[in-house]
Write a structure and sequence with these properties.
Layout: H1 3-24, E1 41-54, E2 58-70, E3 74-85, E4 91-102, E5 106-117, E6 122-130, E7 133-143, E8 157-159, E9 168-175, E10 179-190, E11 199-207, E12 213-221, E13 229-239, E14 243-252, E15 255-265, E16 284-285, H2 316-335
Antiparallel strand pairs: 1-2, 2-5, 3-4, 3-6, 6-7, 7-16, 8-10, 9-10, 10-13, 11-12, 11-14, 14-15
């Protein structure tokens, strides 16, 4: 037998042995990489907080949690959300979402929610559990919840707050020595995308020193087109020679949705100005900082304040003087 024949016979013998091995142990030729599947991993990719149902005292915060999964199936996944008061550190609400088994590669969004009081800021702690074992967590800060408008007061109609054009314009329609008829014009703007429904305008006129209501009026604000401003005018009658605050409010189905203030200076010796205290609150998520800013009019001295009373003025001043005299008499009688 020559060398070529010997090599062919040896190769045939090797093939025969290999074939017998495959039949006897079929797993022998399995790619070892197929059994090297990575263990399942799950983590939080992102958290989005958005307002849900906003009620009078409480609000729902909707939490959209993006879970990222890699590797083999992760079984029995649950997500727990806790709302904790930022100032008090007390637990306000806690909810758990049962996710189940996660086997698809990539990201999926799991939605949950917590209920909190509108007056406050919160720390939302989110924890992901796998079969009861904590795997990952994330903390989100939420502030300015009070800025969210309750659904019952959510209306596109509001007073037009211009920097030059007055929201409440007061003029004297008629006057004599004892009384004055005031024409009050109020500017109302529709900030929505659709034509607004009818709302009620209520106007109160208060004497500055005593806060006594001198007169009041009601008008209906009709439909206002989107982005347009409508002017509503009404008339009130008040005693002459006094200064007045003109308080205006918008009501939708007996729910106050906005308010503003103007003044009517009928006393030439003394004037008043509208309340200029401003406090802005914004709904904020993540980096929250509380910075309440109050802007006050400190140009008025003690003689210009609304609570300063002129005992020599007629009308409302006489009433105040009589009350003072009566109090002094009672005090003197008790001293005896």
């Amino acid at each position: 037998m020559d060398t070529r024949t010997t090599l062919l016979a040896a190769a045939a013998a090797v093939l025969l042995v290999s074939a017998v091995g495959v039949v006897a142990a079929p797993d022998a030729l399995v790619d070892p990489r197929e059994g090297d599947e990575r263990p399942g991993e799950i983590r939080i990719a992102d958290t989005v907080v958005s307002p849900g149902e906003v009620r009078g005292e409480t609000a729902e915060l909707v939490l959209g949690l993006d879970l990222q999964h890699r590797g083999s199936t992760v079984e029995n996944v649950t997500v727990r959300h806790r709302a904790i008061g930022a100032d008090s550190g007390l637990l306000v609400d806690e909810t758990t979402v049962d996710v189940g088994n996660v086997d698809a590669e990539g990201e999926r969004t799991v939605t949950g929610s917590v209920d909190v009081e509108r007056a406050g800021s919160y720390r939302i702690e989110t924890v992901v559990f796998v079969d009861g074992e904590r795997r990952t967590s994330q903390t989100t800060r939420v502030g300015g919840v009070a800025a969210l408008t309750p659904e019952y007061a959510d209306s596109p109609v509001a007073f037009d707050q211009g920097s030059v054009w007055p929201t409440v314009a007061v003029s004297v329609a008629d006057a004599d020595n004892t009384s004055a008829a005031l024409s009050v014009s109020v500017s109302v703007t529709n900030r929505g995308d659709d034509v607004s429904d009818d709302v009620d305008l209520r106007v109160l006129v208060r004497q500055a020193e005593s806060n006594v209501i001198a007169d009041e009026a009601r008008e209906t604000v009709g439909a206002v087109r989107p982005g347009r401003t409508s002017t509503v005018t009404t008339t009130v009658e008040v005693p002459a020679n006094y200064n007045y605050y003109v308080d205006a409010a918008l009501f939708d189905d007996d729910v106050r949705i906005d308010e503003t203030q103007g003044v009517a200076n009928l006393n030439p010796r003394e004037t008043i100005s509208a309340d200029e205290t401003v406090q802005d609150v914004e709904f904020a998520v993540e980096d929250f900082a509380s910075d309440d800013t109050a802007v006050r009019d400190d140009a008025a001295d003690a003689g210009d304040r609304p609570d300063a009373v002129d005992d020599q003025a007629p009308g409302f001043g006489v009433v105040v003087a009589l009350i003072s005299l009566l109090g002094a008499a009672l005090y003197a009688r008790r001293r005896r």
